[in-house]
Structures are given as C-alpha cells and as structure tokens.
Amino acid sequence: MPVIEINGVCKAFRDAKRNVEVTALAGVDLAVERNQFICLLGPSGCGKSTLLNMIAGFERPTEGSVKVDGQLVTGPGADRGVVFQQPTLMPWLPVWENVAFHLLMRGGQKGAHRRTAQTFIDMVGLTGFEDHYPAELSGGMSQRVGIARALLMNPRVILMDEPFSALDEQTRMQMQGELVRLWQHHEGTVVFVTHGIDEALTLGTHVVVMSARPGKIRAVVPLDLPRPRDITSPAFNDLKRYVLEMLHVDRSNS
Amino acid sequence: MFGTDGSTQTYSGTWVIAAFWSTLRVFAGFAIAAALGIGLGIAIGWSRRFEIIVEPTLQVLRPIPPVSWIPLAIVWFGIANKPAIFLVFLGTFFPILLNTIHGVKTCDRMLIRAGAMVGGTPRQLLRHIVFPAALPDIFAGLRIGIGSAWMLTVTAEMVAVKSGLGYTLWDSYYFMRYDIVIAAMISIGLLGYGSDFLVRKVMARVLHWQHGTTLQGEQG
C-alpha cells in the first residue's frame, strides 16, 4: 500500500476581490511508495506547494482525497514532518528547544528531551550550537534546525517546501548532499517541492513534473542515476534535457 | 498625624509612609490591570467571536478619561485605597490590553503552522507559541502602563485619598510649603523612574533572546 495516496484532487481558490474562481490544481493523482524520494518540480504557480500543504493538512482539497497511511488527511499532525521554505523557528527558544519542541509541548522530563534532541542536533551537524538562539544562526544552520525538528518526530513522511531556495549555491549543494545521506541512512519517505531542475534530479528517486494553470501532473520520471550524482555527467544531462523539454512544451502551450 | 493639623513642621518623617502608600497603590492597580489586560487581550486577539462580543464595550469605555471616574470611584469605594487603585487600574488596563491584542494578532502565522505540524493542540499553540510571541508587545504595554500608573495614583491621592505623595503634595500647597510640593514632585519622579527601571529589568530578563537581534545591545 502506498504511504501517500492522492486521488482526483482539485483545488480552487476564490479571488474575493475580483470575484473569480482560480483553479490551482485540477485532477491530480499520485501514489508515493515507502522510501521513495519524490521531487515535485514545476514553474511557480503550478500548485506544487498547494499540493504539499494538502498532504501536510494545512489546506483541504476542494475535490478528491489525500490519504497518508490509508488515513484521510483532515489536519496537520506529527506523523508528517514539514520543513518550511523559511526556517520558522521560535526565536525565543535555543536550538535544542526548537528541535525538541514536539516533546517540550507535551511536558515531561526536560533532561530526557534534551538528550533526544542532542541525537538529532548531532545528526544534522550542529553539535556545539545547542544553546544558540535562531537569531545567531546562518540561513543554512537554521534550515538544519528545521530538518532536525522534523526528523525528531520520527514522522511517516517528510514534506519539504523549497527548503534550500534561500541558501547560496555552495551551501545548497552541501545541504543536498547531507539530505541524501540522511535519507539513505534512515530510509524514509520524502516529498520535496522545488523549482530547480538540478536539485530535483540530484535528490529524487522520482521527479514529478507539473504544469501550470491549472496545476496538473505532466509526467512522473523515475531516476536510476547512481549516487552521489554527478550533475555534469552525460546521463544527467540527457535527463535534464528531457525534463526541460517537458517544461518548455508547457510554456509554448499557454 | 500626617500634618493635617495646620502645623507645617509635622511632615518630617512621613516620607517613607507616603511613598509606601503611593507605591502600594501603583503596584496593586498595575497588577490587576496586567492580569486582566493580558488575559482579555489574548482572548480577544485569538478568538474572533470573543472579539466581536467584547470589543465594542471596551472601545466605548476607552476614551473616557480615568480621572472622570473619580466621583463614581468615591461613591463606590469611599475615601481610601480602593478608588486610587481603581483609577490606576483604569489608566493602565487599556495600553496593556491593546498591546496584548496587537501582539497576539501579529503572531507569525508560519510559527503557528510549525506548531500545528509538530502536533500541537490549539491550547498548546496558545501557550507555547502565541503567548511568547506576543511578549515583546505585552511588555511595551506594561511600560506605558507603569508610567500612567504614577500619574493616576497622584491624581487620585490629591482628590480621593488622605495619604500618599499626592496627598502630601496637595496638602502642603494649602500651607504654601512649596519646598515640600517640589520635594513631593521629585519623589514621584524618582519612584516612577524606579518602577519603570524594574519593569525594564524584568523585560530584559524575559526577552533575553531579543538581545543580538536589536541594536540596543544590553541596555536596560
């Protein structure tokens, strides 16, 4: 059974100012199996973030259904860890309390929570920054805290909404490498939204190419390139050309 | 006993008692206003329904100057501590309330989303995200409040109470002891400064995470 099942999902927004309906997604079907790393790739406005938000439970589909583990998604929950585009850390909490936020909210032994948090802080390479405040961290470090926070909940799926888009190229490539390492090590299901073709092809086991207005799934491209992936290899370039063409067809039609 | 017998000499030795009563009134009124203002402010900022029910009444009461409540306060509470505390409450309640509402309403939606993502119930989100996020605004309200608290205590003491620095000030005016009038004014200024300093100290402690994000460094 797939971990995530998306059936006939449509999403329409009401533009109250102009009194028109805007269709963000039209008839999206997608099944994500366990341990897959899915990259949702598409131009801005194709509804890829909307789709992710519906899996997270922040938004509801107008039509169709989203199921995680066979359960209909009705709201956000700790079984789905989200890493946001902006780090969205609590500025009044030090790093370790942000990572352990899920546990601290429920009360209990602070010492035990701190030890749990430490494991995940080490995992994302922030050892020594446990007591720093978010304002003292760089963009890349803040995103690592966000990733550690999502991992700590041991969620069924991890949803990432362009988490590296605000980082510089070098940091981004480094973070991509570490994300793949974490994923390979822990075996988990990831849905990753991006508008970067290189990023999608570097990370995913599958790339879901989406088209805009209304948002639809154009193709699901499985990737069997060996890891670590060389973004300058001919095989990588062939795939990139293939995906680019798909995105271009879209542009000439609209 | 407090120099009301017409003798101009008997003010000596009464400073501590007068200052004590004024300070007591300031902090009593301030504490009640803080408790109610923060509590109601969070409720109004968080729940649209509660806001619709309560806000209009509060907004009608707000433009009425606290001083204009003095006659009613005396009728209700007599000449004692209570009318002064009531006045202080009225004057400090609104800045604390309005700042708290603002703080809750401007809480970053994404932080609340992040809290919901880690499985927080609405109550947990309120306690662990909305309240701490609103604290900088709440403290802004508390600082405005403590300033007006001294103004209102002194005003009330001139009219409705027979003790405290305001009473000393007004009473010595009748005896044309302007030296004592000025001494009382300076005392009020210093005590006001002291209480603001205290609030700032607490604020710096609670909001220590803000240092480094602001330019003021470790002031206060």
Automatic annotation (TrEMBL), chain A:
Residues in ABC transporter domain copies: 4-237
CDD domains: ABC_NrtD_SsuB_transporters
Superkingdom of the organism of origin: Bacteria
This protein's UniProt keywords: ATP-binding, Nucleotide-binding, Transport
GO MF term set: ATP binding; ATP hydrolysis activity
Xref: InterPro entries: AAA+_ATPase, ABC_transporter-like_ATP-bd, ABC_transporter-like_CS, ABC_transporter_ATP-bind, P-loop_NTPase
Family indicated by similarity: Belongs to the ABC transporter superfamily.
Name of this protein: NitT/TauT family transport system ATP-binding protein
Organism from which the protein derives: Enhydrobacter aerosaccus
Origin organism lineage: Bacteria, Pseudomonadati, Pseudomonadota, Alphaproteobacteria, Hyphomicrobiales
TrEMBL record, chain B:
Topology class, membrane: Multi-pass membrane protein
CDD domains reported in the protein's UniProt record: TM_PBP2
UniProt keyword 4Fe-4S present: no
Primary localization class, coarse: membrane
Alphabetized InterPro entries for the sequence: MetI-like, MetI-like_sf
GO BP annotations, alphabetical order: alkanesulfonate transmembrane transport
Intracellular or extracellular location(s): Cell membrane
Keywords, comma-separated and alphabetical: Cell membrane, Membrane, Transmembrane, Transmembrane helix, Transport
GO CC terms of this entry: plasma membrane
Spans through the membrane: 26-48, 60-79, 85-104, 125-152, 172-193
Physiological role: Probably part of an ABC transporter complex. Probably responsible for the translocation of the substrate across the membrane.
Xref: PANTHER family: ABC TRANSPORTER PERMEASE PROTEIN MJ0413-RELATED, ALKANE SULFONATE ABC TRANSPORTER-RELATED, MEMBRANE SUBUNIT
Sequence similarity: Belongs to the binding-protein-dependent transport system permease family.
Designated name of the protein: NitT/TauT family transport system permease protein
Organism the protein comes from: Enhydrobacter aerosaccus
Organism taxonomic ancestry: Bacteria, Pseudomonadati, Pseudomonadota, Alphaproteobacteria, Hyphomicrobiales
